Amino acid sequence: MPNHRPNAALLLMDLQNAIASRFEGNSAAMLPFRKALDAARRHDIPVIFVRLAFREGFPEVSPRNKSFSRIADFGWGRMTPSDSGAQIHESVQPLPGEPIVTKLRVSAFAGSDLEVLLRSRGIDTLILGGISTSGVVLSTLREAADKDYGLTVLSDACLDGDPEVHRVLTEKVFPRQADVLTVDAWIEALA
Q1: Residues whose CB is less than 8 angstroms from the CB of residue 169 and which lie 6 or more positions away in sequence, other chains included
Q2: What are the Isochorismatase-like domain coordinates in residue numbering (predicted)?
Q3: For the sheet containing 47-52, what is the strand order?
């Protein structure tokens, strides 16, 4: 069997103002994301930002979708691509050339061009971080595993409103389909 070196990308998901603002009381919350972003850039690992946004008037949102049909209840504002709530948080701003993928559902693949972008770049391994562990990270991990991507989850570069759900996912569920590492352990493995 030939030696295969993975072609990886760091996916930073839902680190947009409307979602990250739920954790603004914790000034350290965004630090692991920033650390992972800086390490990826130093090691020439492509970075792809993923955000949630809808067209004006939310025509993509079905009233049967329990999560998105109550979007106004979340206090997320309008969540259109040009709205401030849909912009990437200032602590992890994309550089020119780092794509921002817009998705329409929980998984980073749902309603987006993420897979086309990954395939065109020959990316076969994904390093995942995002808000929330039980939302975008879980959904993206499951779909990416079904698509045969190699997966790493950066456990401390994932946030969830429920710490116990975060713990169960990162310690018991994710390891079935991904390597689960802290940002520091991942950076050490890059050396």
Answers
A1: 133, 134, 137, 138, 160
A2: 8-184
A3: 100-103, 47-52, 8-13, 125-131, 150-159, 179-181
Distance CA 64, CA 112 (A): 21
Multiple choice CATH, 8-190, 3.90.1310.10, 3.40.50.300, 1.20.58.100, 3.40.50.850: 3.40.50.850
**What pLDDT does residue 66 have?**
63
Q: Is the pLDDT of residue 37 over 80?
A: yes
DSSP 183: H
Bridging pattern class, strands 125-131 and 100-103 = unpaired
| Average pLDDT of the chain, as a whole number | 89
Length of the chain, please? Answer: 191
How much is the average pLDDT of 74-87?
Answer: 75
CB 161 within 8 A of CB 14: no
Cα 145 to Cα 76: distance, rounded to the nearest angstrom: 30
For the question of whether the overall pTM of this predicted structure is more than 0.70, the answer is yes
Backbone angles phi, psi at 71, to 5 degrees: -55, -35
